[in-house]
Amino acid sequence: MSSQLLRFQDWTDPVPPVRREVLSALPHPDDGQPPLLFVPGLGHGAWAFREHWLGHVASRGFAGYALSPREQGSLRAYVHDVVQVAVGLPRQTVLVGHGVGALVVAHALARYPARAAVLVAPVLHGWSALGAALRANPLGTLPVFFGGGLRLDRRQLFGAELPAADGYVDRLVRAPSRVYRALLTAPEPAGPVGAPPTLVVGSPDDRVVTRKALDRTAARYGGAPLLFPGMGHDLMLDAGWQEPIDAILDWLVKELADRP
User: In the chain, what are the domains?
Assistant: First the structure.
């Protein structure tokens, strides 16, 4: 019922079209593996996956795509963009969402029959994440309660072993406060279409997503989280970035073998 209502809303109040930024890295040769579409969280863009993960998945035989969120968007618009990009790819796609991008992917799974899904450091429960952010970075978080934007700091996003973290922090874009309010009150995602295998990945040392939240999200999809101690929220940029993406691809290869 919820997906029917969503489609009716799309028909009566369509999402405004935009020019989408989609970065890609393609394998040579292309062996017909499903493509991966990476969806970043708030403040991040497709660049966050171009740094390491896009080229790495291509080196392992998978086409990698990363979608930047539209400016002045909404959860419905972000979901719409993910579904439209996924439908336009040559094969049934694996959706990979990071942070709030995982929330977008969770909602997109109710609209698009993904080959599989990966939720990386997922922010599916906004109030829980905001509470963790308030404890770790009160000065950067308090403005959200007064109409301002969230300002994440280095300690929330990265482990201690990444010397160039400040360069990444400077590239973050502050989203409008109304976007944060909408995400905090977002409804629970509907069930995925086709029950795709879903992996939850995170770090017990993440200062944005708590271990309890990781366990709760993984249990929702019938499993336990795959954990990488010592890393921060931005697993795709942190020192040791190769370990989580290799684990994700190893899991995906196994799932593809078990479910041809």
Answer: 2-258 (3.40.50.1820)
